[in-house]
Specification:
- The chain is mainly α and about 210 residues long.
- The chain has two domains: about 55 residues, Arc Repressor Mutant, subunit A, CATH 1.10.10; about 140 residues, Tetracycline Repressor, domain 2, CATH 1.10.357.10.
- The chain is built from eleven helices and no strands.
- The longest helix has 28 residues.
- The radius of gyration is 20 Å and the shape is elongated.
């Protein structure tokens, strides 16, 4: 008789996979991908290391899943800001602020998503993540051009420049060395940095000193 997986077994497998994903996410948020060792994840999830490989073909596949999960949350928040009321320029400012503030509130996860050295499969996800941001920014720039609040320009190229500028501007402040040396008061007062990033990006788009 052919073996048939019961509903109870399917549910148990789904729960185990969920625990693995949640524990891996916690490890990355706490110490980046470098701290997410398979043995540690298995211990936190309460499963054998072999169970992890029954759900994910490799460590890289597991990390790619975590990267997609984490970045989609961030992309959704930027999309939410860009869907708010106001001109294209105003919505872009809010989206840039959302991007920077969320990164600085969770520096280790943001570092892992933006700059931590990763395996090729995860790097592919990083490129997709940057493209998703660029696509969102491109639409807002086009809206701003149509409204007259942003000068005519290559919206696609400008959107790519925005993603690069904001990511690069956060690399230093987010680096584990920098954040470990910063005291809590400094980490709680990121307004000057966020304002500087927004000002630079918007001046680059509009050509107007802010």
């Amino acid at each position: 008789m052919a073996y048939r997986e019961t509903e109870k077994m399917r549910q148990r497998k789904a729960e185990a996979r969920k625990r693995i994903v949640e524990c891996t996410y916690e490890c990355v948020a706490d110490g980046g991908f470098r701290s997410a060792r398979i043995t540690r994840i298995a211990g936190l999830a309460g499963v054998a290391t072999g169970t992890i490989y029954r759900h994910f073909e490799s460590r890289e596949d597991l990390f790619a899943e975590i990267f997609r999960l984490a970045t989609q949350r961030e992309v959704d928040k930027v999309a939410e800001a860009l869907a708010s009321e106001g001109t294209g320029g105003e919505r872009l400012e809010r989206a840039l602020q959302q991007f920077a503030e969320r990164a600085l509130r969770a520096p280790m996860m943001a570092w892992a998503l933006i700059a931590e050295p990763v395996d090729p499969k995860v790097e592919e996800e990083r490129l997709a993540y940057r493209k998703a941001y660029a696509n969102l920014f491109e639409k807002a720039i086009r809206d701003g051009i149509e409204e007259g609040c942003i000068p005519d320009q290559d919206a696609r190229q400008s959107s790519t420049c925005l993603v690069g500028a904001i990511a690069e501007s956060l690399v230093g402040p987010l680096s584990p060395t920098q954040t470990s040396q910063s005291n809590s008061a400094t980490q709680d007062n990121n307004d000057p940095l966020v304002n500087s990033i927004i000002r630079f990006c918007m001046q680059g788009l509009t050509g107007t000193r802010r």
